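Contributing new records

If you add data, match the layout below exactly. Sequence lines come first and carry their own label; structure lines follow with theirs. Keep one chain per record. Anything else will be rejected by the validation script.
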Amino acid sequence: MFIADLLTAFILTIIIMVPFYFLDRVGPWEGWIWFALLLFLFTWTGGAWVRPYGPASPGYTWLPFLFFGLFFALLLAAAVPPRPPRNRREAVRQARKANEAEEFTAVALGIFFWILLVGLILSLILRYAL
């Protein structure tokens, strides 16, 4: 089950990532890597913990993996900041507003990211160890 779950999560992560990448909803290269890692871990964890349901392809159900992958991808894509402003006046206005809360937000999201990453990995370890 471990290898089948791993491959299913990996393949579905790639399939889910393609539209988000081409729609510029995952940020620059570094952001894309972290987005893909979190999406992969969440897809794998969600699919591994949920009772199998849906159609079975070669005796294996993949619908829980797809459901959790799409759910988390949409959730993360909604949290990505909007595209940069098009004119200078708008850029200056947004920069002033952003500087005020930027430091606090960066620290809070950094801590949340690492807690989420460790939690997903521990959840997978518990799933396959028990």
